[in-house]
Amino acid sequence: MVSSKDVAKYAGVSQTTVSRVLNTPHLVKGPTYKKVMAAIDDLNYIPDGNARSLVQKKTDTIALVSGPLYNPFFVDTTTSIVNYANKNGFKINVHFSNDENLSETYNSIFENKVDGIILSSILLEDPIFDKLEKSGIPFITYNRKHKSNKNFVEMDNEQAGFLAADYLLSLKHETICWVGGPLEISTFKGRYNGFLKAFQKKAVAVKQEQVFITDTSKDELYQAFLKMEKLPEKPTAIHAATDAIAIQMMDFYISAGYRVPEDISIIGIDNVEMSQHASISLTTVGISSPIGLGQLAIENLIKMIQEKNKACIQITESVRIFERKTSVEK
User: Fold this and answer.
1) Per the CB 3.0–4.6 Å rule, which of 34, 225, 231, 282 could disulfide with 275?
2) CA 61 → CA 30, 64, 78, 123, 165, distances in Å?
3) Domains of the chain listed by start with CATH number
4) Dihedral of alpha carbons 233, 239, 245, 251, sign
């Protein structure tokens, strides 16, 4: 393997000069720079990124901890985060994680030097938050937040849950089932609280059998669907806590012979790109801004890194209804 020492000998310069060309090229005279770069090309020398990061005290690398790819929200946000970071000179190490293997994921990140961390996988009372703060590494959460209310970008989840439920109630649906994930997660807790508030406003009772809290996997959602089918009073509408859940519930109902929205109305939250496709056309709630949560988060994180800004980021985006074809009046 070719070393920087070999490059120095080939170019007729010192090893220190090679290091300067790689790390601080603006301090090297033009002819010397060209001579060293020619040697690098001739010898096909590949610089050691780890060694360079030790010298520069930065890696130009950001760790992204994303949720599972069966949720199109994370497909959309991962794409926007990676694209924006790359355009601004940063590489992204992506870790697709679920709440069961988070400790392993974070241990791996802490063991490898990165300039910043952007994450969507955090619980309201997650102990990892303290470790993130003590690490000294700039970080930001998106779509979820910790109970400390520090360094996050989210939508107004409670208002999103309220708007979705209020919309279904305005269509004269009374038997509405809520389907979402664990309430230890800020996203689901906020959206569930908004769902309840809409019913309270209309003085309509929510029965316990109308609420389905799952791990959001396909198998668990299917079990929820089967339980709905056995209810004495079947729902006429589904309030899904995410678009991913809504699309999966649509599939279950259509496969069972139901028509959406004639037999069952369905609304989601997130307004992911897939929801906008003509073949799905999901009625949903999403942020009002054309810039997604992922890009908002990575923009703020890179600003924190570049400006060495330790200010607390607190961004809650307003939301609105995107009325499409999966919900009609009862």
Assistant:
1) 282
2) 29, 10, 15, 25, 41
3) 4-56 (1.10.260.40), 61-155+290-318 (3.40.50.2300), 157-287 (3.40.50.2300)
4) positive
Separation between Cα atoms, residue 175 and residue 239, nearest integer Å: 10
Helix (H, G, I), strand (E, B) or coil at 47: coil
Distance CA 236, CA 213 (A): 19
Token output for 57:
């005290």
Contacts of 297 (CB under 8 A, 6+ apart): 81, 118, 140, 141, 142, 153
Structure tokens given for 209: 């059998």
What's the pLDDT at 99?
A: 61
Of how many residues is the chain composed? 330
- CB atoms closer than 10 angstroms to residue 316: 17
Q: How far apart are the first and last CA of the chain?
A: 72
Sequence letter at residue 258: Y
> For residue range 63-72, what is the model confidence (pLDDT) as tens digits?
999 988 889 9
Contacts of 257-262 spanning 24+ positions with Cβ under 8 A: 260/326, 261/325, 261/326, 261/327, 261/328, 262/328
User: Which residue type, as a one-letter code, is found at position 327?
Assistant: S
Q: Could you tell me if 263 and 301 are in contact, meaning their C-beta atoms sit under 8 angstroms apart?
A: no
Mean pLDDT by runs of 10 across the 330 residues of the chain is 86 88 80 90 71 58 91 94 95 82 76 88 90 90 95 98 98 96 97 98 92 96 97 96 98 98 98 96 97 96 89 95 96
CB 326 within 8 A of CB 109: no
pLDDT 10s digits, 14-39 = 988 888 887 777 788 888 989 988 98
